[in-house]
Design a protein that fits this description.
It is a single chain. This protein is mostly helical. It has 15 helices and no strands. The protein has two domains: 187 residues, Up-down Bundle (Growth Hormone, Chain: A), CATH 1.20.1250; 198 residues, Up-down Bundle (Growth Hormone, Chain: A), CATH 1.20.1250. Helices cover 83% and strands 0% of the residues. The N and C termini lie close together (7 Å). The C terminus is likely disordered.
């Protein structure tokens, strides 16, 4: 059994954590930069909405391919190449800004390509974790990566807008490029023995054949399908809050939109706390903990729909974020643990495809619900839906002997 200290002392895992830090920093920065550029160029909420819709399309188009490639190709090469491509794209964006040829269409294309490379990167990174740490320490590894990643993303998002204001878009983008380059170089240092010597002559026919194998594998394994359905439903409900939360603050609680920053800061703080606890805590009955966490999350959301006090709303949102993080970490750990190692990439690719579709539909639906019923009612519906999901989780999730964190 590997404890928290022993795991982080292992050079290979430490390299993985640092690689992920640079990737998370770069991801958080380019999303902020491109959003700011769109708002500056168009001043349109419609354009911003289109931009967010663009981010969901690569997940639908490339998740299965990305998952398959991570199983049949060298994972560290995928990680290195994808981040190198992302740094190149941002250098192209710098050129467009420098020559005053930037436009909304160009931004959408660049963001689409950035997200496409990210969808190819993510399954390979998940597969790399499985091949670097033992399955019994997977929850601990993911919790550690999530905690560190959340802190880095919080810092990246916070400093990015400030850097743009102080030094402009181009220097900030160059910092962004540097982060991706560091990630690309570090990923070449990873030791992923089970995947380093894979034949790289795979053709399109082989890829399609392996995609089909992955689909069949997921479909015939009821435990996997149950997990994927539950996680997708979970994300479907969570996506409602992208639209509902700002309007709950402005239209229901009657506070300025700037308070959204306080609410999000509370949730980020609780993400980190939950991640630290889960990295050290041994969970003996995963199914019960997941079900209870989702139920408490739903309870907090329902209470928020009745309280018109920003102080209590921030506290409730933080508590909800805490139990949301516990549920997500355990669900994702279960997904990796019940999958065969040579199929984990394809399982994650299938999961990302279903999740991308569900989130796209959710974001379209949430705007309609908030417009027709109001943010408070949307919170009530979401909260009670979480209760139903908690019951479904208790009934459908597979039993296990526990996920070790120590």
């Amino acid at each position: 059994m590997i404890n928290d200290g022993a795991l982080i002392k292992k050079r290979n895992f430490r390299t993985l954590v640092i690689t992920d830090m640079f990737t998370k920093l770069a991801d958080s920065m380019d999303n902020v930069i491109i959003t700011l550029l769109v708002i500056e160029l168009t001043g349109s909420s419609m354009s911003t909405g289109i931009l967010f819709a663009v981010t969901t399309l690569p997940g639908i188009l490339f998740s299965l391919i990305g998952g398959t490639l991570s199983d049949i190709k060298s994972q560290k090469k995928i990680l290195s190449i994808m981040t190198a491509f992302q740094s190149t794209l941002l250098l192209i964006l710098v050129l467009f800004i420098k020559t005053n040829k930037i436009s909304f269409a160009i931004l959408c294309i660049i963001l689409f390509m950035l997200e496409s490379f990210s969808r190819l990167y993510s399954p390979a990174f998940t597969s790399a974790i499985v091949n670097i740490v033992s399955k019994e320490n997977y929850k601990q590894a993911v919790s550690t990566l999530t905690t560190v990643g959340s802190l880095v993303q919080m810092v990246g998002s916070a400093i990015c807008a400030t850097l743009v204001a102080l030094i402009g878009y181009i220097p900030t983008l160059l910092i962004n490029v540097f982060s991706y380059i560091c990630s690309s170089l570090l990923s070449t240092k990873l030791n992923i023995k089970s995947n380093d010597n894979i034949n790289n002559t795979t053709n399109v026919k082989d890829i399609l054949y392996n995609v089909n194998l992955g689909l069949k594998y997921v479909i015939i394994h009821g435990d996997l399908m149950g997990l994927i359905i539950i996680i997708s439903m979970f994300n479907f409900i969570l996506a409602w809050f992208d639209v509902a939360l700002p309007f709950l603050l402005t239209d229901f609680i009657n506070v300025p939109i700037e308070f959204l920053g306080y609410v999000k800061s509370a949730s980020t703080f609780m993400f980190v706390i939950a991640g630290i606890i889960m990295a050290k805590k041994k969970v003996n009955n995963t199914k019960n903990v997941i079900s209870i966490s989702i139920a408490i999350l739903g309870f907090c959301i329902v209470i928020m729909s009745y309280i018109k006090n920003i102080f209590f709303s921030v506290i409730l949102w933080g508590i909800a974020a805490f139990f949301r993080t516990i549920a997500v970490l355990l669900l994702m750990s279960q997904l990796a643990i019940v999958s065969e190692e040579n199929m984990i990439g394809r399982v994650m690719g299938f999961f990302m495809l279903i999740t991308s579709i569900s989130m796209l539909l959710s974001r379209l639906l949430s705007g309609v619900i908030v417009t027709c019923l109001g943010a408070s009612t949307t919170f009530k519906i979401a909260g009670f839906t979480f209760f139903i999901l908690a019951i479904l989780s208790f009934i459908k999730l597979p039993k296990n002997k526990g996920l070790r964190g120590e």
